[in-house]
Design brief:
The model has no long low-confidence stretch (mean pLDDT 90). The chain has 364 residues and is α+β, with helices and mostly antiparallel strands. It has helices at 37-45, 93-102, 113-119, 135-148, 165-181, 193-199, 217-220, 227-230, 333-338, and strands spanning 2-10, 13-21, 26-30, 52-57, 60-64, 69-70, 78-81, 153-157, 186-190, 202-207, 210-216, 236-247, 252-257, 261-265, 275-281, 285-288, 299-311, 315-322, 325-332, 346-351, 357-360. The longest helix has 17 residues, at 165-181. The strands form 4 sheets. Strands 7-8-9-3-10-11 form a 6-stranded mixed β-sheet, with helices on both faces. Strands 2-1-4-5-6 form a 5-stranded antiparallel β-sheet, covered by helices on one side. The protein has a 5-stranded antiparallel β-sheet with strand order 14-13-12-15-21.
């Protein structure tokens, strides 16, 4: 487990954060700029010291202000990838990677040099200097150097923030490959929810130095606290699904969500058995009190209402359970009254295929 319970004050900024996450997977620290994300990873790495707190990784205490224990940064076995990669400009890519290996002395190797070069496609870059690399290439080298130090935890502080859209798309598949092929836990800082959607397994949401939501991504994505950060238009559920079959003629793929529900996606290239993550936005869900007939909507899932909460004078936030898959719908109070929506009541959720956003997990 990764356990963080820290508090500190610097000028007008105050941080008071507590969370516990699984040691495996990718933990995303998500929130607006200035909310405390980078402060937390700097505290974990040892670059900052809290006024009060305790940080543990895998049962080992990195810092405990109550007892006075504090491991130096170099003793924590943590890799850190910054926004700007921070490569040595006078060294080649190969020499930058070798520096990572030098830092691994005395540590058990979980990944070898050749594996890093292959995983991050660095072979064509080894003789080059950082000034000749693109931003995406520099970040890949920075990742490789951090991995070769053989860390037990990898911290990534908005590693894509300084890249344009094309370079971000260049690097993201490599980060996904790291998550898939290595058992190395990662803490990923971001204020871009699309990155969180593709990479995270666990989500910690911060606002003004406080944690307002946390949990597995599929659960935390339903937390109302996200609305204030991502905006109403981006609020919705994230579902882990499995591909059942594709139809080349229509370009649609059928996937299983929950225990028995199915959705049709516009993703013709997915293979049966593959894992896919589906985002269902609340604004795209239509509710019906009966099975739909004669509609163009291809996705209709039967379930029941878990809760209904008023949001302002007109809207209601409705949480639905569709045989194990939970999604959110936003309806007007007038519609809720007309349909007699109530907790425990049966309902059909209708979702247009064209509105679904999906992302397949890479294969090993």
């Amino acid at each position: 487990m990764i356990h963080v319970d820290v508090a500190m004050r610097r000028g007008d900024f105050s941080l008071d954060a507590r969370f516990t996450t699984p040691e495996a997977g990718v933990v995303a620290l998500f929130g607006r700029s200035g909310c405390g994300k980078t402060t937390i990873v700097n505290l974990i790495s040892g670059l900052l010291r809290p006024d009060r707190g305790r940080i543990e990784i895998g049962g080992e205490t990195l810092i405990d202000t109550a007892s006075g224990r504090c491991l130096a940064p170099e003793q924590r076995r943590i890799g850190y990838v910054f926004q700007d990669a921070r490569l040595f400009p006078h060294l080649s890519v190969a020499a930058n990677l070798a520096y990572g290996l030098k830092r691994s002395r005395g540590r058990a190797h979980v990944i070898e040099y050749d594996d890093v070069v292959s995983l991050l496609a660095l072979a064509p870059l080894l003789a080059r200097r950082p000034h000749s690399l693109s931003g995406g290439e520099r970040q890949r080298v920075g990742l490789g150097r951090a991995l070769l130090a053989q860390p037990r935890l990898l911290l990534l502080d908005e590693p894509l923030a300084s890249l344009d859209a094309a370079r971000r798309e260049e690097v993201l598949p490599y980060l996904e490959a790291l998550r898939l092929r290595l058992s190395l836990p990662m803490i990923y800082v971001s204020h871009a929810f699309d990155e969180v959607l593709r990479l995270a397994t666990h989500l910690v949401v911060l606002e003004a130095g406080r944690i307002v939501a946390q949990g597995p991504l599929t659960e935390a994505s339903l937390d109302p606290a996200l609305t204030a950060i991502v905006g109403p238009a981006a609020v919705g559920a994230i579902l882990d699904a499995q591909v059942l079959e594709g139809d080349a003629a229509t370009g649609l793929t059928r996937v299983r969500v929950g225990r028995s529900g199915t959705l049709r996606l516009r993703a013709p290239d997915l293979i049966a058995g593959a894992q896919v993550r589906v985002q269902v936005l609340a604004r795209d869900v239509i509710l019906s009190d009966r099975a739909p007939v004669g509609l163009s909507v291809r996705n209709a899932l039967r379930g029941h209402i878990v809760s209904i909460e008023s949001q302002g004078d007109e809207a209601c936030r409705t949480l639905l359970d569709l045989d194990g898959a939970r999604i959110v719908a936003h309806v007007t109070r007038d519609a809720a009254a007309a349909l007699q929506l109530r907790p425990g009541g049966e309902v059909w959720a209708l979702v247009k295929t064209v509105s679904l956003r999906s992302h397949a997990f890479p294969h090993a």
